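G., the chain you wanted modeled:
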Amino acid sequence: MKTVSKKAIMAPFLFLWLVLPINALCSPIIEVQPHQHSFGDLQEGPPATTAFEIRNTGDEDLHIKNVHTSCGCTAAMVGKRCLSPGEKTRIKVTYRTAGRPGPFKKTISIESDDPTNPDLLLKINGNVIARPAPLLFLPHSRVVVPSGPSGSLANFSLFLTNRGQKPLEIRRIVSRDGRTILWAQPLTIPPGKNLHLPLHLVRPAEHFRLLKFRVESNDPRRPAYYFGIQEGVNP
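Predicted structure as tokens:
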């Protein structure tokens, strides 16, 4: 019977021991520096844009499969989705500031075939300074009118304040369903001023619990400001 030497037995294992580590190193590697960008203070209105540089520092082609953002206010666009070893591209990130005053923190997730880092997370942050605009404020969410028979007039006043930095234009005051109009003449309230507006409501029934109305204005953050009219009961 022919004997097999120990060297012959160990040879295949030695080959695997030498080859496998080399093959393990042959993979794409995604690299982005830095991983975070701060916009600082931004003026509301124009979109804010930055770019991150993506590099493949591995030994095989890097494929960028998907890019996800944490909300619809943030958009991300990749210049190239397949990078050869040593190749780089840029990912353009845009944050929409319009209608979003205040601080923000958003994330961008990059999904690739990097085996050690398949989901790379990028971050952006900043603070949007509100642009000068009118700001409507009603001190009470409900107005109470005295009881009365159906079809009679209920007289009351609505207290309107402009807390903004631009003139406030009151366009009309109408019921939620649009059928009852309390006011339809244009009014302008200067910044920092208020107005007592006398109004009249025809009672729809002898006893009603709550009717919803809205003040339509040029306030960009709240163009329809809702309030209620209630009969005979304090809010």
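The chain has two domains: 28-129, 136-231.

Shout if anything looks off.
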